[in-house]
Automatic annotation (TrEMBL):
Keywords: Metal-binding, Zinc. This is Carbonic anhydrase. InterPro entries: Carbonic_anhydrase, Carbonic_anhydrase_sf. Zn(2+) binds at C96, D98, H149, C152. SUPFAM superfamilies: beta-carbonic anhydrase, cab. Binds 1 zinc ion per subunit. Its cofactor is Zn(2+). Gene3D superfamilies: Carbonic anhydrase. Belongs to the beta-class carbonic anhydrase family.
Length: 243
């Protein structure tokens, strides 16, 4: 009859080694996690110390991180808790409702970093202007950024003169951008380059529109307290570019 001792000892040895390896790996994981610097929501002092140009640069730097795949380590629950008693966003961003263009994600932003307004085709209206005024004049944001994106469905609908309930009036806001876009190729919604050119024009036209219709915002910009800028987001490459 064979002895059971070697078998038991071997089983115990394997269990011990397995436990030791698991503990070692857990220790490495905990050390790695504890050594990471987690991003936190902006404090009032941090936001107030930034210039409008620095805010814009920080957003473009965030997009560069997004493109590289090396983003800030974030604990969104911690950001939620830390911002629950007050918010100090550095910018307000007007972008399209398109599900492929989440500016907070593509600029590596966290909870409390920006005010975010979204409407089809990033169209400016009175409600949006009022929101921008609140963000900058009341809450201290330093930048108003209007962001369009490539392959915009709202732009395509405007080019095609789509008629659909309340959407009809919204798309009518694109007419001046369509007319003002200089383009020698096919001026149709099937031409991606023309669609993107119109969207870019629409963003560029939004900037003087904001200044002209909001004495509050134009006054803050004249004093150097804020900047009003436009950008385009490429949904294929992931890059955000000022326009």
């Amino acid at each position: 009859m064979k002895s059971l001792r070697p078998v038991c000892c071997e089983s115990h040895r394997r269990h011990f080694l397995g436990t030791s390896v698991a503990a070692a790996l857990l220790g490495v994981g905990m050390a790695t996690a504890s050594s990471r610097t987690e991003a936190a929501s902006l404090s009032e002092a941090q936001r107030n110390a930034m210039t409008p140009d620095q805010v814009i640069k920080s957003m473009l730097d965030g997009n560069a991180r997004f493109l590289s795949g090396v983003h800030k380590e974030r604990n969104f629950l911690a950001e939620m808790r830390s911002s629950a008693t007050g918010q100090f966003p550095a910018a307000i961003v007007l972008s399209c409702i398109d599900s492929r263009a989440p500016i907070e994600v593509v600029c590596d932003l966290g909870i409390g970093d920006t005010f975010n307004a979204r409407v089809a085709g990033n169209a400016v209206n009175d409600d949006i202007l009022g929101s921008m005024e609140f963000a900058c004049a009341a809450a201290g944001a330093k930048v108003v950024m209007v962001v369009g994106h490539t392959a915009c469905g709202a732009t395509k609908g405007a080019i095609d003169n789509v008629v659909l309930g309340n959407l009809t009036l919204l798309l009518a806001r694109f007419k001046s951008a369509i007319d003002a876009t200089v383009y020698e190729g096919a001026r149709t919604s099937k031409n991606a380059a023309f669609v993107d050119a119109v969207t870019k024009t629409h963003v560029q036209q939004a900037l003087p529109l904001i200044r002209g219709r909001s004495a509050v915002l134009s006054g803050l910009e004249a004093e150097g307290k804020i900047k009003i800028v436009g950008a385009m987001y490429d949904i294929a490459s992931g890059k955000v570019t000022l326009v």
